[in-house]
Amino acid sequence: MEPAVGASDKENTVSDNAERGAAARVHSAVEQLPKPWRATGWLMVFALLHFVGVFLYIAGYGGYLGAKLGAAGQVVDPAAIQAEVAAHITTPTAMAGMYLVQFVFILPVLLLVARFRTQPALDTLAVKAFPRKQLLPWIGVLLAFIALEVAAVQWFDIEPGQFMETLAGSKHLLLALIIVFAAPLLEELVFRGYLFRAWRHSRLGFSGTLLLTSILFALLHAGQYHWIQLSFIFVLALILGVAREKSGSVLLPMLLHLLNNLTSAVVVIYFGIL
C-alpha cells in the first residue's frame, strides 16, 4: 500500500514543476538569442559588405563613364576615368549612392540572420513598441547632448574636415534623406538591435555590451570627423544604448538617432553651418 501524499507534498511538487517550467522557458528564450560569437562573425560579414558596397559603386561608376565615352565614339582613357571617379567619390551624390548600395546589401542579410525557427527577426532585433511616457524625457536628454556638442565644437574651434565641408550647404535631398532615415534604421538594427541582443545576455552583460557597441559605432564614423566629434558620437551611442536597455525596444534609440541626424542635416546640409 502506497503512503498517502500530504497537502504540503503536493504543493512542493507543484512548486517544483512550476520552477522547472519557468527555468525551461528562460533557457529556451536564451537559446533563441543569437550566440555572441555568431553575432561577432556576422559583424565581420557586415563590415565586409560595407566595403563591397563601396567597391561596387566605384567600379560601377567607372564602368558607366567608360560605356558613356564608348557610346559617344570617344577614346576610353583609363587614367582619365580613374581621375574622374576619384573626384566623383567625394561628392554628395557619391556618398548617397555608396550608402544606398551598402543598405541594399546589408539589410536583407541582417534580417535573414536575425530570423530563427522559433523566433522572428523582429523579435531578435527588438522591433516593438515602447512606453510613450519615455519619449519626452529621452528627447530632453538628446537636446541637452546636442547643445553640449555645439558648445564644444565652438569652444575648441574644431576644423570641419572634408566630409563636413562636402555636406555643408549642398542641399542634396537624397543624401539628406539617407542621413535622416536610412542611416538610423540600418545602424540601430545592427548595433542596438542584433549585436545588443546577442551580447546583452553573454558574459559582457549590459555594461560590456553598451561599451563595446558604442566603441564600434564610433569607429564606424572614423575618418569622417575630428576626434572630439568622434568622442561625442561615442557619447551619443551610450545614450542610445541606455535608451535601448530602459525601453526594451530598438525603436526608441532609432527615433532619437533620427532626430539627431535630422538636426544635423538641416543645420549642415541646408543652412551650411559648421
TrEMBL record:
Pfam families in the cross-refs: Rce1-like (PF02517)
Entry GO MF terms: hydrolase activity
InterPro entries: CAAX_protease, Rce1/LyrA-like_dom
Keyword set includes Transmembrane: yes
Residues of the CAAX prenyl protease 2/Lysostaphin resistance protein A-like domain: 172-262
Transmembrane segments: 41-59, 96-114, 135-153, 173-191, 203-220, 226-243, 250-273
EC numbers on record: 3.4.-.-
Class of enzymatic activity (EC top level): hydrolase
Keywords from the UniProt entry: Hydrolase, Membrane, Transmembrane, Transmembrane helix
Protein name: CPBP family intramembrane glutamic endopeptidase
Ranges in a coiled coil: none
Lineage, broadest ranks: Bacteria, Pseudomonadati, Pseudomonadota, Gammaproteobacteria, Cellvibrionales
